[in-house]
Amino acid sequence: MKTITMDVLKDAANRLLFDMSDEQYKTLYEEFQILTKQMETIGKIEGLENYAPMTFPFDCSTTFLREDVEEKPLPREDALKNAGNKQDNQIKLPKVVL
Amino acid sequence: MNYLDQPLKEIHEALVAKKVTPLELTEEALKRAKENKDNAFELIDEEGAKAFAKTLTEPEKDNPLWGIPYFAKDNFSTKGLETTASSNILVGYVPVYDATVIAKLKEKKAIMLGKTTLDELAMGGTGTTGHKGKTFNPYDPKHEHMIGGSSCGSAAAVASSIVPFALGSDTGDSVRKPASYAGLVGMKPTWGRISRYGLFPFAPSLDHVGYFTRDVYAASVVLDALAGRDPHDSTSSDKPVEKYEEDLAKPIKGMKIAVLKEIVDSITDKELRAHFDKSVEALRKEGAVVDFVSFDRQLLESCYATYIVISCAEATSNDANLDGIKFGPYRGGKTYQEVMYNARTAGFSELIKRRFVIGSYCLMRENQEELFLRAQRNRAKIVEKVNEILKDYDFIYVPAAPGPAPLFTKASDKLSDEYLIADNHLCLGNFAGLPSITLPLCYENGLPIGINFMGRAFEEKKLFQVASAYERLSGLAEASVLDPKEALL
Question: What pTM, to 2 d.p., does this model score?
Fold first, then answer.
C-alpha cells in the first residue's frame, strides 16, 4: 500500500483537479492516522478472498426493449442556461489544441 | 392548534371536509418556515407554492397527499428552482427537469414549499457542512446540539411541524440518524423501491431516497406515492407496489425480531439501555419473539471503514461532473483542466475535498486491491451475515444511535466500539439495500433518541406493521417540538 505522505495526498487531490491549503493538507494527514487504523478493521477480517467484490446490494438486472417514444429534445436555451461561459450558442472553453 | 400540528391523516380529513384549504395550510407552513431559526432552508418557493395551492379546489378523498405541503432536500432536481446540494460549486444551478419523486408528488398534488439544507453534497452526518453553515436541532433552542445529517433541514422542518413530511436521501444513515436526533419517523425503503432519477448521486451502490414523517401512517402513504419502477432509473425495481398502510392495525404476534447483541452492548448510555430493554419487553408482551442474536464484533467494527472506503471512492467518480463548465460558477483558466481546477478548488469545502482525497487514495492502483476491493469483499461478507439473520427473523431491532444528539463541540473517540459500532451501524441497511425505519423511543434532557427496525428486501408492508405496533407502545406518534408527547417506554 502506498505510504501516506503530504506529497501523496497532494497527488491524490490534484488527480481530482482541485487543491487545498497547506493547513488543510495537514489536517487531512492527521485524519489519515486515525483512518488508517479504522481501515485496519477490514484487514482483520479473515476469508475475504472467498467473496467477490460487491458492487450493488443485490441483482437488479433489467433487460427489456422499450417502446420508441417521441420526445422533444432539450431546447438549446435550457441546455445552455447553466453554463457560465458561452459563445454563439455553444459552451466556450479554452482551446485544447494550441 | 393549527391543522399543521395534527397527524397527516387528520389534515387530510380536514381538507376533504373543506375545514381548511390547501392555500391556508400552505400559507401557515410558509409563515412557520420563514419564522424558523434553525437554518433549515436553502430556498422557500413562496410564489410557486401559493400558485399551485390555489389550483387545488376539489379535494380528492382517496389521495391522502392531496393539498399537503412538504419540503425536499436540496439534492433533488427541481425544474426552474435553484438546486445547490448546499455546495458553492452548484450556486446558481437551475435544473431543467424534476426528479421523479418530485414529479410523482406533483401528480399527487402535494405542494412543494421549497428546498432544505444538507451536509454539502449529502456527504456528512452532522448537519454542519452545508454552505449556509450549521443547521440546528429544534429540540435545543440554545443551538448547542446538532440535528445530524446529511438530511438536516428536512428533519428540522418536520420536527418543527412546518410540514407533515419531507424528502431526504440516505447513503449511510442520512435520514435515519437525524430522525433519531429529532424524534421523527425516518424511512429508507429497499434499494430500487423508489426511483433515484434526479437525485444527485453520492455513492449509487448505497444511495436511497428516504423521508421523514411524524407517524407511521404518514410514512406508509408517502411510500404509496413514491414507490415504483421508473424507466429513467434502470436500478428501480419493477416489483408491484403495495398498499403499504393496509396492515398497520394488525397484531405482531409470532413475528420474530433479532436484537443485535454487540450493538446493544456497545452502548454506554444506561438510561437509553433501560428504555430499550423496556421496549423489548413491551414487544414480547405483544406476542413477538425477541431474541438477542450475536452478529460478529469484528465484522461490525469494520462497517464504518467499509462504508468510508466505498462511499468516498464512488463519490470521487460521481462528482467528477462538477466542473464549473456545464453548470456551477465558471471561474476561468488557461486550459480546460485549469477551468475545472479553479472551479473545484473554490467550489468544494474542506470536508468534501478531504473525503474525495480519501476516495482517490483508495482507488490508486497500488491501493485498490487492499483498500477498495477489500472493502467491497467485506461488504459482501457483512451482507451475507445480515441476510443469514433475516432467514430466521423478520426484523433486526436496535437503538438507532448511542445517545441523544451530540453537542457540536463533542469530540468522539473514533476508534472506540461506541463510535465504530453503536454510532455507525445503520449503514448495514445500505450495504444490504434493506428497508429500514427509525422511530422515537425516549427523551434524555428533552432530546429524543430513536430505535430502528430493518426488514427483508421489499417487505416494507410488514416493516410498517411492526413499526405501527411499536408506535402504539411508545406513545410517540406525532410528537414534535410544538406538540411534545411523553414516551411510554
Answer: 0.97
